[in-house]
């Protein structure tokens, strides 16, 4: 990659891991910009780069990556100095926010990493799918940048990215919550929740050799209303889990039995 | 283990893998009993053991493992010859059926493997949690048997086992269905569903170093009604997924925001 300089705006989990992923790819960001002096300053120090507390203070930089909350993207983009809004590529990393939030910038793009990040948790950056969008010149530059980090680079437009974000919420947030509810159920009965771990692992490993449609088993899959009824009797009818159990079971039954 | 002989009754996925797991542990079953001559006969042939088409024909055997459907357990148990119902340990492998279904047998037990089995899919038998129940003499024998297969052996009573089975349905069946719904959503939009796989893997890997309660992220976790609303707009209001999305989001919000 030619001599480009990059500014990461934000100091949350995505900004943190993106900055480190770029550094690992041999491309240390020039500056971290964050209103949060503690987190932003610490991140800049870790990377050995500059720190600024306001995008207004940015001078010359080629690419500006906005990793800030969805509601802040447009506000922050509009605070970028006029000259940079003309010359620099300005991209955001959000799964849900349209590229239109960057309409004040001439070279707007999307640089969305489809992964869940927690500060203390190492991630294998090479496998992260990067979803890029923008006019072709911008996407070309972002493509080069993404390939420094990962082998999985996709060109995904605004509408596709919104669907993708929804799907990501389902497989990550919702799956994680089901695991929480199941483990919580056992803990309340003083059963070690770790007993579920081999099953959880196999659930995910299984779909590497078959589709989830093929891998499905269980009472709803075989329309075993007896077992479903007995499970529901174990749950508090007022609890969210009671309704979740009923709805997902119905959805499985619909998937396998209604078309037949 | 002393010279014991074992009969596996059934030829479904659990019977198939249990028989192979025992053989791998150095303990080849003496006989496979199944009304299904094709599957039962083939399994017996694979193991190099005898085959019978009816439990009525069983003569001398020390342990009888019933891996048949929940509704057949009591019926099959009652067909075991009188003398064996007195002398042999008779156990079943069901997560939901009470030990009372074996009340016609003097030495009744539970031998429940907490794992999902598909015939064509290899499983690491060593990690399967075996949940045992019965009077102490019976459990001692089953404990020895289970340890031939696995390092994870638990003593779990009838009530606990029912909760465990419910939790297993949630982490396996329901998680798998969510993965199906998410991938189906992408396929309908001609997006390669494999793009979700790194996120799915990280979702599960993450909870090896933190609890699901700590690992939770996403719009519902941060009470971001804007994003939730935009996701719901992408879904057909009549679809099960629409209701599932709403309910699980509510449940996450309740978990993190209602007690505070």
Fold and architecture overview:
The structure is a homodimer of 260-residue chains. With 260 residues, chain A is of the alpha/beta class. In chain A, 47% of the residues lie in helices and 13% in strands. The first copy, chain A, has 10 helices and 8 strands. An 8-stranded mixed sheet of chain A has the order 3-2-1-4-5-6-7-8, sandwiched between helices. In chain A, strand 1, helix 1 and strand 2 form a beta-alpha-beta unit. The longest helix of chain A is centred in the middle third of the chain and has 31 residues. The radius of gyration of chain A is 23 Å and the shape is elongated. The termini of chain A are far apart. The relative contact order of chain A is 0.08. The interface between A and B is large, with 88 and 89 residues.
The quaternary state of the protein chains shown equals: homodimer
Largest Cβ-defined interface = A-B, 88 and 89 residues
What is the helix fraction of residues of chain A, given as a range?
40-55%
Write the element-wise H/E pattern of chain A from the N-terminal end onward: EHEHEEHHEEEHEHHHHH
Radius of gyration of chain A: 23 Å
Q: Classify the beta-strand content of chain A into a percent band.
A: 5-15%
| Class derived from helix and strand content of chain A | alpha/beta
Number of distinct helices of chain A: 10
Q: Summarize model confidence as the mean pLDDT of chain A.
A: 95
Number of strands of chain A: 8
Shape, per Cα inertia axes of chain A: elongated
The span between the termini of chain A is: 55 Å
Please summarize the sheet with the most strands of chain A.
8 strands, mixed
Largest beta sheet: strand ordering of chain A? 3-2-1-4-5-6-7-8
Give the uncertain stretches of chain A in residue-range form: none
């Amino acid at each position: 990659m030619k001599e480009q300089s990059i500014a990461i705006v934000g100091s949350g989990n995505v900004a943190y891991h993106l900055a480190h992923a770029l550094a690992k790819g041999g491309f240390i960001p020039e500056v971290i910009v964050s209103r949060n002096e503690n987190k932003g300053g610490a991140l800049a120090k870790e990377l050995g780069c500059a720190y600024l507390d306001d995008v207004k203070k940015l001078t010359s930089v080629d690419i500006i990556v906005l990793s800030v909350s969805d509601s802040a993207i447009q506000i922050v983009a509009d605070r970028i100095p006029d000259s940079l809004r003309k010359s620099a590529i300005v991209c955001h990393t959000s799964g849900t926010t349209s590229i239109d939030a960057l309409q004040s910038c001439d070279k707007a793009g999307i640089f969305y990493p489809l992964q869940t990040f927690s500060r203390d948790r190492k991630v294998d950056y090479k496998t992260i799918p990067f979803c890029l969008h923008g006019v072709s010149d911008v996407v070309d530059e972002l493509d080069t940048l993404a390939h420094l980090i990962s082998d999985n680079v996709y060109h995904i437009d605004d509408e596709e990215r919104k669907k993708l974000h929804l799907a990501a919420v389902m497989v990550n947030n919702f799956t994680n919550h089901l695991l929480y509810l199941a483990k919580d159920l056992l803990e309340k009965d003083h059963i070690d929740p770790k007993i579920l771990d081999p099953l959880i692992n196999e659930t995910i490993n299984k779909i590497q050799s078959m589709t989830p449609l093929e891998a499905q088993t269980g009472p709803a899959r075989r329309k075993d209303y007896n077992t479903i009824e007995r499970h529901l009797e174990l749950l508090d009818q007022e609890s969210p889990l009671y309704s979740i159990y009923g709805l997902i079971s119905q959805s499985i039954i619909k998937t396998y039995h209604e078309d037949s």
